[in-house]
Write a structure and sequence with these properties.
Strand content: 25-35%
CATH topology: Alpha-Beta Plaits
Distance between the termini: 20 Å
Shape: elongated
Structural class: alpha+beta
CATH class: Alpha Beta
Order of helices and strands: EHEE
CATH architecture: 2-Layer Sandwich
Radius of gyration: 15 Å
Oligomer: single chain
Helix content: 10-25%
């Protein structure tokens, strides 16, 4: 059975509105290099346009883990 690790990542938008899409794709590529993939994208505002995203977005990401992985946190 496959097991997954989840985390939320906050992406803050400090620059102009036109660079937000580029920042989002760059951040997803950085997370993807570590094996993370996007599950959900959400904000406090409705996701109608990039201009409504305000100060940032929350990204819910997951990656598959193995039983013998050293990345798994022991609780």
């Amino acid at each position: 059975m496959k097991k997954y690790e989840y985390k939320t990542h906050y992406l803050r938008f400090d620059g102009p509105v036109t660079s937000r899409e580029e920042r989002l794709t760059d951040e997803l590529n950085v997370l993807g290099q570590d094996g993370w993939r996007l599950v959900r994208l959400y904000s406090d505002f409705k996701l109608r346009t990039f201009s409504s995203w305000g100060g940032g977005l929350n990204l819910l990401v997951e990656r598959e883990i193995s039983e013998s992985s050293s990345d798994v946190l022991k609780v």
